[in-house]
Amino acid sequence: MSESTVERPQERIPTGVPGLDIVLHGGLLRGGVYMLQGRPGAGKTILTNQMCFHHAAQGGRVLYSTLLAETHERLLFNLEPLSFFDTSRIPEQIAYLSAFSTLEQGGLKGLVEVLRREARARKSTLLVVDGLVTAEESAQSKREFKKFIHELQIHANLVGCTILLLTSSSAEPVGPEHTMVDGVLELFDNRLGRRAERELEVRKFRGSSYLRGGHAFQITQDGIVVHPRIEALLQNPSRQDPCKRERVSTGVAQLDKMLNGGLPCASTSVLFGPTGAGKTTFGLHFLDESSKSEPGLLFGFYETPPRLLLKAKALGLGLEKKQQQGVFDMMWHSPTERILDGLGNKLLQAVRERGVKRLFIDGVDGFQQSAAYPERISHFLAALTNELRVLGVTTLYTSELQEMFSQQVILPISGISSLVENIFFLRFVELHSKLHRMLSVVKMRDSDYDSSLQEYRITSRGITLAAETFQGAQSVLTGDAKPATRPRRKGLLKKRSR
């Protein structure tokens, strides 16, 4: 194959918007014409200007033209509080041009001529047309409007200038402009009950693959942050599964003995139990084994880091010291309105950057409460769990059971039992008018284990197990244990003969 026939990848123009280049698999293509659409207030202007200032910071030159939009003074005033805004880039690298009067006097033909002339004069590598709907309304026919788009495409191809066209969402599912541009990005502001969540979707992107479907985004002090949907981002794990045979200590010696040495390395476990059963306490023991070779991370939703450190200290655990040594850390998120994929991406980033090998997620239900679409949660956890495994992370989740005293156990997240290798069950048990805490190992995939029911006690020296408590008892798993009835000897029921 000659060099002339080798297909070369097209040059990318990174947007500089966190998460968006991941969705676009590297950014926009140089010389492409892209449409950015959405209802008023969806975030189009912030997103586009964020791209413009990043492009200028990379050495590019931008021409930002407006058609019957907000004044430039108002536009810059609204952008000023955002961290990406840099007045030193204006007007040398980023020039703002009001082209509405040109459109009024010369129509679409006059507008194209002005845009071409100004873009060439400024050597622009990025051209923005803000207010495309105004140009469409000025067109005498759909054909004339399509011709306008075509003329912009010719300019983009000739000089290698990337073009962004901003417009409101069209009433028509597919307008004439959609068929001509190289890509369509749409912004939404979805109302979900009393909650609202912003979403971005790439509807079309010629010449490149991309992450399909909706991706949540936020408008922050730094501009827009896109959170790629975990199930789309991690359709397949990023590397091969290491499948190690080593065991990882739970931090409770008696439990390790029940598990034939501890948890399988790079496995995922879930600890089910009602409130007050001690789920977090087990997790703190697990993290107390953190070391330089096995850094630990607590990712929690409910108890704050200071309270958790106090709890660990009361149990005789040295997590505070391990945190000072840099082998253990905590990330806490208030269980309020969060973005599910934001949490997932933040967790994975921390795991990769810190080389985490012991991960305790205290309250997997916190993910469920953050999900705008609850039906996603099992797919989200499947993708997250698979990625953690291939990163060599041994993960322990906790999940709260709603009923403290019930013979029926309903798992709070459907399908979670199929996503994990190991399941532990905690519950309160009444025996002889006294309340006990009980631990049972329900499942360990591809591993033998001790299935006996164990009482566990939480003391100032941590967790201890007591196997003898429930010996000779029955109905323990129902929570209402009873001493086993001894069989009577046969001769006792017969009358003595005289």
Automatic annotation (TrEMBL):
Residue intervals of the KaiC domain: 11-240, 246-480
Pfam families, alphabetized: ATPase (PF06745)
Keywords: Hydrolase, Kinase, Phosphoprotein, Repeat, Transferase
Annotated region described as Disordered, given as residue ranges: 478-498
Repeat keyword on record: yes
Regions of compositional bias (Basic residues) in chain numbering: 485-498
Enzyme class: transferase
EC annotation from Swiss-Prot or TrEMBL: 2.7.11.1
InterPro entries (UniProt xref): AAA+_ATPase (IPR003593), Circadian_clock_KaiC-rel (IPR051347), KaiC (IPR030665), KaiC-like_dom (IPR014774), KaiC_dom (IPR010624), P-loop_NTPase (IPR027417)
SUPFAM superfamilies: P-loop containing nucleoside triphosphate hydrolases
Domain of life: Bacteria
Protein name: non-specific serine/threonine protein kinase
Organism: Archangium lansingense
